[in-house]
Amino acid sequence: MEAIQSTTQIAPTEINSEPAPNTKPTATRKHIRGSSLLLVGRFLSLGLNLVVQILTVRYLTKSDYGAFAYAISVASLGSSIAVFGLDKTVTRFLPIYQERKEYNKLYGAIIMMLGTIAIIGFVMVGLIFALQSFIAGAYIKDQLSLALVLILIVFAPIDALDSLYEGMFAVFASPKAIFFRRHILGPGLKLVAVVAVMLARSNVYWMAVGYVIAGLIGFGSYVLMLSGMLRRQGILQYFNLRAIDMPVREVFSFSIPLLSNDLVYALRSYLPVMMIEYFNSSVGVASFRAVLPVARLNMLVYQSFTFLYMPLASRMFARNERKGINELYWQSAVWIAIISFPVFAVSCSLAEPLTVILFGKQYADSGIILALLSLGHYVNAAFGFNTFTLRVYGRVRYIVAQDFLSVVVALVSSFLLIPKYGALGAAISTSLTLIAQNFFCQIGLRFGTDVEPFDMAYFRTYITIFLSGLGLFLVQWFFDPSVYISFVLAVFVSGLVLVLNRNELNVEQIFPELLRIPFMKQLLSSSPRSSSAQKIA
Asked: How many Å apart are CA 14 and CA 59, to the nearest integer?
């Protein structure tokens, strides 16, 4: 037990020792309702981003798109390095400082985080330009890929700062403001950039420049909007530069160990792309990267719920509402698992025809890659916010330990599979790493938090999902039905999963408005039997 104790300065004993009044139904309802508004926004941004992806893939040749995707991956890796784990730290510490009314620490933390990211980001850009000859000789064989890296690396510090502001939005902004900035403006700027390049009949270089410009405009909007929100909420009046207290030890003792989590993400997301480029070609990168955004749609609901989970759970932790956090965790996980299932069903059972429809026949070989990636991403989403909950409890040592084990899985599987199997090996390695990391985090819940690693109240939900997914796989394997039959079957099974688990969704308590929609009352109303959700209520 000692091995998993937090190294952070904010420990449970430093916060109220007396439990707060039980307000967990309200907190859970607030989280799911606010997250569901963001889910609607996520669907809108999904449409915009999917259009951007399809237009980009179809406009560029496969080799050009492979080089562009490689450069985007390098820039994203640079962004992960520059952000220095502070995008995860900001949503834990700022709500606690605000709850305690420690505004000098709150503003000190913001200034310190912004400065750290800016310095790391711009030093990294300088190093890439200074060492470009060495990089070209040792790591990047394709000259087009190198040229695009030199353009898009400028995007790395911009994206890192954008991520930090996004975290601050989760703390201070309303769901409606987040809805507009994150899900409308951001992807809309990318779409404008791509369409402008296509109308001008420009090449892939201008596509890269367009992405950088869109990033700059998006970051500028974050700065303006957040400043206005702090002023309207009356928080800006507490800003006093002379009284600033920078909580260096508290913040960095939490964020630096969490760099291991960024390392796992980097190995899972960017190492496969770089290894495909090195051992295979840009065409192999294109086969993998083209379908990766489609597979990540399985994380759509998860990502929407994530945005509000960390600040809310941190405030509950500060108020010592431990049972409330358990409810918040599992109720959120069940919503994610059930609502995400239709995406999983379609992206697995219709992987090959879906790939051809979206990206053309030249990407037909990416169908099996899409199916494997979808499996890993869905499993990662369906069990909820285990990593985020460990962060809320400050279990930094355990997070580092499980990250180390995940790194081992990523490295071993990548070096065994990618040199031989290329993009297919990368898909297998990525899914294995996702599933392994999720398993390690669930174990961590048992020893480091008050959250059950598996709440038996929801056993029926997860066994239904497992059997439904297995049934779809077996039908495809033995009967190979047409695309139309497969689609109808996926929709039917998804509806069945929803109906069988409507009690666990607790719609009457969380979203009574849905029951006013025709047919929704019959579909989503809890059955007369007592459910776990009704017991919670």
From this structure: 57
End-to-end C-alpha distance for the chain, whole angstroms: 33
Helix (H, G, I), strand (E, B) or coil at 334: helix
The pair of three-digit structure tokens given for residue 4, joined into one six-digit string? 């998993």
Q: How confident is the model at residue 525 (pLDDT cuts 50, 70, 90)?
A: low
Helix and strand counts by DSSP (H, E) for the chain: 27, 0
Residue 416 CA to its chain's centroid (Å): 27
Exposed / middle / buried, residue 342 (Cβ in 10 Å: 0-12, 13-18, 19+): middle
Statement: residue 14 has pLDDT above 70:
no
Cα Rg of the chain, angstroms: 23
Q: What is the pLDDT of residue 12?
A: 36
CA dihedral 302, 307, 311, 313 (to 10 degrees): -10
CB atoms within 10 A of CB 537: 14
Residue 219 structure tokens: 């970051």
Residue 506 gets the label, from left (phi > 0), alpha (psi -120 to 50) or beta, of left
Q: How far is CA 383 from the centre of its chain?
A: 14
Residue 431 binned pLDDT confidence (cut-offs 50, 70, 90)? very high
CA–CA gap between residue 33 and residue 511 (Å, rounded): 7
Structure tokens at 525: 């109303």
The beta strands (E) that lie in 442-487 are given as none
Give the residue among 330, 285, 534 at the shortest CA–CA distance from 422: 285
CA 299-440-265 angle, to 5 degrees, is: 50
The encoded tokens of residue 197 equal 């390049």
What is the DSSP code string of 455-515?
-GGGHHHHHHHHHHHHHHHHHHHHH---HHHHHHHHHHHHHHHHHHTHHHHTHHHH-GGGG
> SS3 for 338?
helix
Helix ranges (H only) for 233-281 are 248-255, 259-269, 271-279
pTM, two decimal places: 0.68
DSSP one-letter code for 506: T
Question: Residues 507, 510, 514, CA angle at the centre, nearest 5°?
Answer: 55
pLDDT in tens, 184-243: 777 888 888 889 988 888 888 898 888 888 888 888 887 887 777 778 777 777 788 888
What percent of the chain has pLDDT above 70? Answer: 82
Q: How confident is residue 359, by pLDDT bands cut at 50, 70 and 90?
A: confident
Q: How far is CA 345 from the centre of its chain?
A: 20
H helices present in 85-185, as ranges: 86-100, 103-130, 132-138, 143-152, 155-172, 175-180
Tokens of 230: 């702090």
